Amino acid sequence: MSVKTIALVAHDHKKADIVVWAQKNKEALALFKVVATGTTGSLLLEKVGLDITRLQSGPLGGDQQIGALIAEQKLDALFFFWDPMNPVPHDPDVKALLRLCSVWNVPVACNVSSADMLVSSPLFLDPNYKPDLPNYDK
Question: Cβ of 46: how many Cβ atoms within 10 Å?
């Protein structure tokens, strides 16, 4: 069975939160292939030491790169610490990313509490767990 892939993304005002959270969960996260958008990936590499595949910055296409992974069923979970209090120029991309997670039944955590719940689930580390994929051919 191949290694599962997860994505870590954080808006500017949430980057410190995702770094602290990743430091606490480094052991679990190290079991996965981790992708992250630009600056978030750089911070996690520097401050946590995770092996990370860095994508473009979110506003420069990183959100779409993660969206493509979801649409191709190559992403197993998304940890997206987004900031609902500060609008961003790429807000439509953010909404599209969250929508794709719902469309393809990809687990998504949007804050520290939901990330804690997701990473502490026995299913998170179960290599045999596969969420049901919707059938849109009906």
Answer: 9
Determine whether the annotation assigns residue 38 to a binding site.
Answer: yes
| pTM for the structure as a whole | 0.93
CA 19 to chain centre: 13
Q: Is 63 a catalytic residue?
A: yes
Please write the tens of the pLDDT for every residue from 26-56.
999 999 999 999 999 999 999 999 999 999 9
Which sequence spans correspond to the domains of the chain?
7-111
Neighbours of 5 (CB within 10 A): 15
The response to whether 53 counts as a known ligand-binding position is: no
Q: Which CATH class is domain 7-111?
A: alpha beta
